[in-house]
C-alpha cells in the first residue's frame, strides 16, 4: 500500500461561489421547467440546436478527439511516460496485470450496463431488415446483440473464467461464436 493513502488531512470548510452556484441552479431549473411545460416545442428546438451544432462543430469534435489521442500516446512514449507518481521509495498498489484486468472489467461492466438493454431494444425497433417490433425483429435484435456483445464481451469473460485445467487461447475461446456470427452475417448478406 502506498504511503499517500495513510496521510490524514484536516477537513476544509467547503466554499461556494454564490454567483456561479445560484446562476447555474436558476438556469437548470428554468430549462427543466420549460421542458416540462412545453415538451414538444422544447424537443423541436433542442433537435434544431443539436443539428446545427453537429453540422457546425462536428469536424471540430473529431479533430479534438484525434489531437487528444495523439497527445496522450505521445505523452506515454515520451520521458514523461516514466514519471513516477508518489515518493521515490513507494511501490505500486497493483501490478500492470491487475490494472489491465481492472480496466478490462470496467469496460465490460460499462458495456453491459449501458448497452445491455438499449442495444437489443434499438435493434428491435430499428431492425436492419423486416418490420419493426415483430417476432422477426426480436430474433434479429438478439442475434445482433449476441454477435456484437457476445463475441467480444461474453467470450472474453468466459476465457478469464475458464477452468485452469486447460490452456485456452483467444482462438479456442472465440471460435464457436465467430463461426456462428459469420454464418448469420452470410445468411443476411
Describe the secondary structure blueprint for this structure.
Layout: H1 18-37, H2 39-77, H3 96-125, H4 135-161, H5 170-188
Protein architecture, described:
It is a single chain. By secondary structure, the protein is mainly α. Helix content is 71%, strand content 0%. The chain has 5 helices and no strands. The protein has helices spanning 18-37, 39-77, 96-125, 135-161, 170-188. α3 packs antiparallel against α4 (135-161) and α4 (135-161) packs antiparallel against α5. The chain is extended, with a radius of gyration of 25 Å. The protein starts with 17 loop residues before the first helix and ends with a helix.
Intertermini distance:
54 Å
Q: Which overall shape is indicated by the principal axes computed on the Cα atoms?
A: extended
What is the chains' assembly state? Answer: single chain
How much helical structure, as a percent, in the residues? over 70%
| Rg result | 25 Å
Number of E strands: 0
Instruction: Describe the sheet with the most strands.
Output: none
Structural class: mainly alpha
> Low-confidence segments, ≥5 residues, pLDDT <50?
155-173
Per DSSP, the total helix count is: 5
For the residues shown, what is the average pLDDT? 79
Give the ordered list of helices and strands: HHHHH
- Sheet-strand content, in percent, reads under 5%
Short description:
The chain has 189 residues and is mainly alpha-helical. It has five helices and no strands.
Could you name the key traits of this structure?
189 residues, mainly alpha, 5 helices
Amino acid at each position: 500500500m502506498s504511503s499517500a493513502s495513510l496521510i490524514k488531512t484536516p477537513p476544509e470548510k467547503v466554499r461556494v461561489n454564490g454567483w456561479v452556484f445560484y446562476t447555474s441552479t436558476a438556469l437548470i431549473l428554468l430549462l427543466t421547467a420549460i421542458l416540462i411545460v412545453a415538451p414538444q416545442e422544447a424537443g423541436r428546438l433542442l433537435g434544431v440546436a443539436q443539428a446545427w451544432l453537429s453540422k457546425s462543430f462536428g469536424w471540430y469534435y473529431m479533430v479534438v478527439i484525434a489531437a487528444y489521442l495523439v497527445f496522450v500516446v505521445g505523452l506515454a512514449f515520451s520521458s514523461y511516460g516514466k514519471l513516477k507518481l508518489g515518493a521515490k521509495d513507494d511501490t505500486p498498489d497493483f501490478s500492470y496485470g491487475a490494472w489491465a484486468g481492472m480496466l478490462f472489467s470496467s469496460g465490460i461492466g460499462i458495456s453491459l450496463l449501458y448497452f445491455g438493454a438499449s442495444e437489443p431494444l434499438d435493434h428491435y425497433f430499428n431492425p436492419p431488415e423486416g418490420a419493426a417490433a415483430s417476432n422477426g425483429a426480436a430474433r434479429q435484435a438478439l442475434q445482433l446483440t449476441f454477435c456484437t456483445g457476445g463475441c467480444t464481451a461474453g467470450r472474453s469473460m468466459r476465457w478469464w473464467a475458464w477452468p485452469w485445467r486447460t490452456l485456452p487461447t483467444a482462438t479456442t475461446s472465440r471460435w464457436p461464436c465467430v463461426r456462428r456470427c459469420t454464418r448469420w452475417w452470410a445468411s443476411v448478406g
